[in-house]
Amino acid sequence: MDYTPQRVVSLQPSATVILRDLGKLSSLVACTKYCLDVCPEIGHSQVAIVADSWTAQAGQISQLKPELVIASVPYQEKALAEIMKCGARFLGLAPKSLADIYADIAVIAGIMGERTEGSRVVRKMQDEISTMRAHTRDFAQPRVFCEEWGKPLITSQQWVAELVESAGGEFIGTAGAQTSPDDIAAANPDVIIAAWCGAGDRVPLEKIIRERKWDGTPAARGGRVYCIRDEFLNTPAPTLVIGLRALAAAIHPKCFPQADGLRWINK
Questions:
Q1: CATH number of the domain at 139-264, please?
Q2: Which CATH number applies to 8-94?
Q3: What pLDDT, in 10s, does the model give residues 195-222?
């Protein structure tokens, strides 16, 4: 008997991207509106749109009769209770590092009966990251501050720190931790990158530099203040390789071409 789930609800874009890259979007019966940002092809399908991992609703999920629900951080305790009420098998993910992301891809691939394809997807990510690391190994390493949220100011996650280092930069601060504008100013970043969760590419770069009094940082003086689209850095999935290319173009603009999802202050 085949126990592979035929009806899957994804409550996080990362899970949807992984399903797509495994060739299993045909099993998807529902996802969130944010999934459309990374998988626009879903907009032309009959897939239902439901609340995400933060605001999940049992009624929405149950009426779709899923065999598997996949969610990922950030979670809200109430939302987890709602997911559990629906009665379907539940896979909850909480990746912090690239290794965690590779493991999540492998887990989803195993559940969906696509172990070989899962290995291929992971290997493709690893190869691109390794190639970038080899390319930048002998470059000077600018000091790079990446933020995933502006108020409060929160440093990007550990997997972003790993990507920054692979792209030839030195990551400033503690990954995933709250920090202050004064601390970042004192660290003298050569490059500042904002990728706010849920903001796409709409981070107001000029405003944050002005309000945080970062005008005197090497990054601001040198015109090295960037926005990278949220879904390319904050979605723990194979799309991170797009974020890697954007990071490389921001950190070493003379060595890498303009990349998708990268915007900077025009002086």
A1: 3.40.50.1980
A2: 3.40.50.1980
A3: 999 888 999 999 999 999 999 999 999 9
